[in-house]
Design brief:
The complex is a heterodimer of chains A (117) and B (114). With 117 residues, chain A is mostly beta strands. Helix content of chain A is 0%, strand content 54%. The N and C termini of chain B lie far apart (38 Å). In chain B, 34% of the residues are buried. The chains are: A mainly beta (117), B mainly beta (114).
Chain lengths: 117, 114
């Protein structure tokens, strides 16, 4: 049973191309995230969606555009790819509760390794 | 200021020994959550353990325990009886605020020596 899935797992492309990464979760969570992990393993949040609405939009180039067709899906589209976009991109999901608790745990997808040549 | 600080970029431990991975956090919220994740060389992020700010007992999950010292704002991960499969990157994370934003530390690379 895959909780958070991402496709593709590997993506190799040329500079200047446009590509998309898809993410789906079957946990019934209402919040989904995109993270970028660089070569030094630093995890940086990019976007967060709650019930299809954008709630966190960190400083990322506007070449990156998230799209959430429903609360189980959060796709990441990247225009005009650059060498510096090479990284591992993780999708995650959680159930945000005002009272907090373990239910807030984020569960991650397997990651998509993007290589821009 | 960093929200999550992990001061040990790399740690080594002998197999079967215990090891403590340090994590300190910074928040003014009263309600927050602390998490540890493991990232083996295969790349996936695996949730290990959770500690809530109001939890009075330290969290434990099998060989993992979280040494929660609220006044010091520290949430160290203790791994008992280390195994070779514990070799991985370990990330400390915090959730704060109503929007539930997560903050991750820079990670600690643990190597278990046979």
């Amino acid at each position: 049973d895959t909780a958070v899935s991402q496709t593709p797992k590997y993506l190799v492309t040329q500079m200047g191309n446009d590509k998309s990464i898809k993410c789906e979760q079957n946990l019934g969570h209402d919040t989904m995230y995109w993270y970028k992990q660089d070569s030094k393993k630093f995890l940086k949040i990019m976007f967060s969606y709650n019930n299809k609405e954008l709630i966190i939009n960190e400083t990322v180039p506007n070449r990156f555009s998230p799209k959430s067709p429903d609360k189980a899906h959060l796709n990441l589209h990247i225009n005009s790819l650059e060498l510096g976009d090479s990284a591992v991109y993780f999708c995650a999901s959680s159930q945000i509760r005002l009272a907090g608790g373990r239910a807030d745990t984020q569960y991650f997808g397997p990651g998509t390794r993007l290589t821009v040549l | 200021a960093q929200k999550i600080t992990q001061t040990q970029p790399g740690m080594f431990v002998q197999e079967k020994e215990a090891v403590t991975l340090d994590c300190t956090y910074d928040t003014s919220d009263q309600s927050y959550g602390l998490f540890w994740y493991k990232q083996p060389s295969s790349g996936e992020m695996i949730f290990l353990i959770y500690q809530g700010s109001y939890d009075e007992q330290n969290a434990t999950e099998g060989r993992y325990s979280l040494n929660f010292q609220k006044a010091r704002k520290s949430a160290n991960l203790v791994i008992s009886a280390s195994q070779l499969g514990d070799s991985a990157m370990y990330f400390c994370a915090m959730r704060e605020g109503l929007d539930g934003q997560f903050y991750f530390g820079t990670g600690t690379s643990l190597t278990v020596i046979p």
